Amino acid sequence: MKIQKFKKKNFNSVVDLLNKNxxxxxxxxxxxxxxCKSFLLQKNLYAVVAIQKDxxxxxxxxxxxxxxRGGTIGYIEDVAVENDFRCHGIGEKIISKLxxxxxxxxxxxxxxxxxxxxxxxxxxxxxxxTGGFIMQKIFxxx
Length: 142
What we know:
The chain is an alpha+beta fold and 142 residues long.
């Protein structure tokens, strides 16, 4: 298993992985190329995939934002590992790779949120701690 930078050829596999493990939002196949192109053109993004035998088994991304007072904050999102490969350290390797990249570009802080209380233990194991409350408003597409 290896962790490598996300590539265009990984797009369909990652969308499928996220649909199975995080959310049922699926873009229409007719717009996949457009979405993938705009995703890859972002300058404030670093994304990785976990690959085993040329199959995507994990994914994670970190987005960066310059703050008004200076400094950069990183937001880790969409961390997912195929069910059959969980509890083998793959998620930790993904988080570690994203965190190291954030440190490399001098983030003063990296944040993430998880939907399930049961995931808190995993993220604490990766060196993260709870730091407040998350409020959100989700807009759904019809």
